[in-house]
């Protein structure tokens, strides 16, 4: 029996049988199940299945299997149960909205602060774009390495690679506009049209208040403001425009009003916000230096646990658009590195065979920048190792901040990020990565883990 078949069969059994599965979904690392009767689910039994890295109990039962294998297991579960598999984002709160227990949903809503909800909305805009951003960034980074290695920038091969790698970033604003409008309940195409207004080269030919407009002013923040505004406007217009002429009048008025509002209000406001964010972060890193790196890297893992880290994507993009590179991403990438170091320490220290197996499965993907299996399967359930991982990350972040290591694009953290780092800083980034590994290991080995912690894993 293939591994995915065995896992699917054992998971279904511990879930209370095929008849107890109401809905099924999968994301990058998790199999998400909505049971008919939660009392029939054997959580301990699921945790003890060979190949399960961890489990998260929220509004759905989320079984952490790791990237790649989760898709194959989901397909097998679907074949056995006859349930279709929905694909959801990694940080989706509830892929079966409306089917989960209302009390749980209401409680979660009460505990959600406006700031968390704001970050989740921004994350929802960028999460669908991450595969394309990662792929494009990696190709762009490799192209940069090839050029720095002595290749002719005018050669056909380099030009083709540059075209493939940098193409997305040239038109990313359109995708952001489309996703923002969708997130705020508007027509995606109108969101894209609103975004194009901000980046249209024709802006340079328009003079307002004695100054020529600058295409791209406000960056992706301005795009999100414009797309959210047009979505809001579209929804309001549909309430008053007659249905017979809605398809013509509503989008026309929405785009026209948004265009004017963008030029006079939204673009200047977006530019101001962008300047405040980039200058503020750069000032913090420059003034704080090592201390800033310590704080930013050391507090990043808790943000990852909540899923709110995706809300920082526009901040990374604004830094790249404004100053040409991103000094924040290498610092935050140390969060995952500290956790890898902690996991290594636990692996060599524990005698728990199951815990060793979970770590063995999670370490490779953790080193490649996907930290969820180690977070939810190892460090977070154990408690103290999660804190020592943060301490290790803080040391690595201090190193990256001290040497001003920066990336030319955004992508996954871990080892792959080295290809996105400025070429002359690649060695420094790797040294910082090893430092975070080492101190995550050291702190966890000295005082982060005791064997009795593994009894309930």
Q: What distance lies between the first and last C-alpha atoms, to the nearest angstrom?
A: 26 Å
How would you state the average pLDDT, rounded? 85
Beta-sheet strand percentage?
5-15%
General shape? globular
Structural class: mainly alpha
Number of helices: 19
Would you report the number of β strands?
A: 7
Strand order, sheet with most strands: 3-4-2-1-5
Low-confidence parts lasting 5 or more residues at pLDDT below 50?
97-108
H-E order: HEEHEEHEHHHHHEEHHHHHHHHHHH
The proportion of residues forming helix, as a percent range, comes to: 55-70%
Rg, Å, rounded: 24 Å
- Main pleated-sheet profile: 5 strands, mixed
Overall number of domains: 3
């Amino acid at each position: 029996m293939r591994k995915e078949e065995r896992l699917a069969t054992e998971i279904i059994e511990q879930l209370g049988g095929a008849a107890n599965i109401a809905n099924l979904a999968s994301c990058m690392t998790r199999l998400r199940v909505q049971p008919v009767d939660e009392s029939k689910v054997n959580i301990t039994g699921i945790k003890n299945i060979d190949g399960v890295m961890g489990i998260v109990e929220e509004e759905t039962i989320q079984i952490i299997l790791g990237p790649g294998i989760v898709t194959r297991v989901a397909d097998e579960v679907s074949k056995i149960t006859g349930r279709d598999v929905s694909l959801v984002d990694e940080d989706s709160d509830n892929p079966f909205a409306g089917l989960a227990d209302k009390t749980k949903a209401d409680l979660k809503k009460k505990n959600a602060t406006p700031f968390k909800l704001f970050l989740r909305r921004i994350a929802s805009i960028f999460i669908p774009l991450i595969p394309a951003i990662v792929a494009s960034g990696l190709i762009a980074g490799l192209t940069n390495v090839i050029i720095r290695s002595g290749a002719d920038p005018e050669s056909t091969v380099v030009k083709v690679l540059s075209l493939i790698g940098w193409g997305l970033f040239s038109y990313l604003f359109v995708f952001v506009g489309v996703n923002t409008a969708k997130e705020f309940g508007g027509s995606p195409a109108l969101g894209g049209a609103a975004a194009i207004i901000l980046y249209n080269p024709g802006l340079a030919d328009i003079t307002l208040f004695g100054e020529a407009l600058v295409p791209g002013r406000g960056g992706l923040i301005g795009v999100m403001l414009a797309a959210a505004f047009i979505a809001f406007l579209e929804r309001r217009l549909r309430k008053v425009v007659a249905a017979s002429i809605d398809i013509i009048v509503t989008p026309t008025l929405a785009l026209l009003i948004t265009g004017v509002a963008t030029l006079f209000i939204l673009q200047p406001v977006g530019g101001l916000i962008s300047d405040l964010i980039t200058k503020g972060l750069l000032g913090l890193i420059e003034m704080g230096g090592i201390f800033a790196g310590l704080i930013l890297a050391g507090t990043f893992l808790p943000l990852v646990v909540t899923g709110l880290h995706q809300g920082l994507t526009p901040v990374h993009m604004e830094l790249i658009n404004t100053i040409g590179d991103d000094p924040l991403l290498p610092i935050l990438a140390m969060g995952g590195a500290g956790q890898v170091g902690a996991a290594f320490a636990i692996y060599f220290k524990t005698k728990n065979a199951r815990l060793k197996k979970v770590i063995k499965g999670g370490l490779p993907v953790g080193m490649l920048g996907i930290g969820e299996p180690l977070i939810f399967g190892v460090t977070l359930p154990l408690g103290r190792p999660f804190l020592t991982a943060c301490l290790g990350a803080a040391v690595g972040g201090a190193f990256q901040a001290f040497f001003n290591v920066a990336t030319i694009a955004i992508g996954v953290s871990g080892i792959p990020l080295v290809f996105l780092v400025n070429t002359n800083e690649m060695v420094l980034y790797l040294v910082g990565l090893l430092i975070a590994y080492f101190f995550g290991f050291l702190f966890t080995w000295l005082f982060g883990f005791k064997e009795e912690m593994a009894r309930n894993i």
